[in-house]
Write a structure and sequence with these properties.
One of its GO terms (cellular component) is DNA-directed RNA polymerase complex. Belongs to the eukaryotic RPA49/POLR1E RNA polymerase subunit family. InterPro entries: RNA_pol-assoc_fac_A49-like. This protein is α+β, with helices and mostly antiparallel strands. The protein has three domains: about 25-90, no CATH class; about 110-155, no CATH class; about 195-365, no CATH class. It contains 13 helices and 14 strands. The protein has helices at about 110-125, 125-140, 145-155, 175-180, 205-215, 230-235, 240-255, 260-265, 265-270, 280-290, 305-320, 330-335, 340-350; strands at about 25, 40-45, 50-55, 60-65, 75-80, 80-90, 90, 170, 290-295, 295-300, 325-330, 355, 365, 380. The strands form six sheets. The protein has a three-stranded antiparallel beta sheet with strand order 2-3-4, with no helix packed on it. Helix 6 packs antiparallel against helix 7. It is globular. About 20% of the residues are buried.
Length: about 375
């Protein structure tokens, strides 16, 4: 609807007269003549239609939910059964994608569901993105049966501590259960007289792995195998082959934690972890991932418990390679793509105290005796029937 100065526009809103198409609008108006966005208004079957091409994304947006008869347009906004007009200058809509006909010779390599997922990844809502993430995490193919079967099997592997019992749901994990979980935590020496004696680093990086790394890698120039900036910082001060093997091991754990589910499936066949040793790759996959079987085909995946184990072991290795000095929480959380709040919880589980650095500008982990004692409170709420 065209707007003119010194004139008011009254709109009679009839909610039962027909559906109102709401598009994604932002800013205040249509692009001016100096804009980089290509604007084209044409008549399509006696109906005005506007097409806009965004040169950055190279996607064509089209629509006819407005009356493009002037450089200034109005949009009808409905809130609480009241309608009002507001000027718009820039608009953005979902593109109308025409998928190829499956029966034609130009058969697309992607299924219809896969095409829709790609479409929703770019333009979908938060709920759609969450659904796609779950589908990619569990599904071998995009069939609903395989997806549901995979999801059920993954749930069966979950730890007993995370399963609600006796009608109680835990809204926060019980740190006592995690500390006593042998899958997540390496053995802790209760009689340690110094911080260095609390954990035996060979419980994470075994002696056989160290021997294998010595025979498979050029440890004189091992920095070429390290990608993480944090591990490169540790690697500059290593003194022996055990510490060098720990650097390679920690760098691999960081790569594994940040892999996408689709990339994780290709690790065994394509070696996407980039390791020189096949034995080291198999050791990491067997200890930090789970193998699920669906459609008679084993597939590697990571449950939340596997990710917890990677972060906990990675944090212990970081403390060891940092020579038990204060460790910046922000740097560790950055490489593991984890929030600092969640990383502080992992640090407390390992036994770290949280303190400020010398400049009082950032938080650090301090690993010292006596270790941080987590409160054994488990926050619970009753199940609502």
């Amino acid at each position: 609807m065209q707007s003119k100065s010194k004139k008011s526009v009254k709109v009679k809103y009839k909610p039962n007269s027909g559906p109102i198409c709401v598009t994604e609008w932002s800013s205040n108006g249509v692009p001016d003549g100096e804009s980089n966005i290509d604007l084209n208004i044409k008549t399509d079957e006696n109906q005005l239609k506007c097409e806009i091409k965004d040169p950055l994304s190279e996607v064509l947006y089209s629509g006819s939910q407005f009356i493009p008869s002037h450089r200034r347009f109005m949009i009808l906004e409905v809130e609480e059964n009241k309608a009002r007009l507001k000027p718009c200058v820039y608009f953005r809509m979902k593109p109308q994608i025409n998928f190829p006909v499956r029966a034609s010779s130009n058969l697309s390599s992607l299924s219809y569901k896969e095409q829709m997922d790609e479409y929703n990844e770019k333009f979908g809502s938060k709920r759609s993105l969450k659904r796609i993430e779950q589908r990619k995490k569990f599904a071998i193919s995009f069939g609903e049966d395989d997806y549901q079967e995979m999801k059920d099997k993954t749930a069966s592997i979950a730890s007993k501590s995370s399963t609600p019992t006796d009608g109680v749901i835990k809204t926060k994990f019980d740190t006592t259960d995690i500390i006593n979980d042998t899958f997540l935590m390496p053995p802790r020496n209760q009689n340690a007289t110094s911080a260095k004696e609390v954990y035996n680093i060979n419980d994470i990086v075994s002696e056989s792995i160290v021997t294998n790394v010595e025979s498979s890698y050029d440890l004189e120039n091992f920095l070429q195998y390290i990608n993480s900036p944090l591990v490169q910082h540790f690697a500059e001060r290593v003194k022996n082959n055990l510490e060098k093997a720990c650097c390679i091991f920690l760098d691999t754990l960081i790569k594994l934690k940040n892999l996408r589910s689709s990339e994780l499936k290709k690790v065994e066949s394509h070696g996407s972890l980039g390791l020189q040793s096949f034995e080291l790759q198999q050791y990491i996959l067997e200890n930090y991932t789970v193998s699920l079987h669906a459609s008679n085909k084993p597939v590697r995946t990571m449950t939340e418990k596997c990710k917890d184990k990677i972060i906990i072991h990675g944090l212990i290795l970081s403390i060891y390679l940092n020579q038990f000095k204060p460790l910046l929480i922000s740097e560790v959380s950055k490489v593991f793509l984890t929030s600092t709040i969640k990383m502080r919880k992992y640090g407390n589980i390992v036994g770290c105290h949280v303190d400020t650095n010398k400049t009082k500008t950032d938080r650090v982990f301090v690993f010292k005796l006596p270790l941080h004692s987590t409160d054994n409170k488990t926050y619970k709420r009753r199940r609502v029937n």
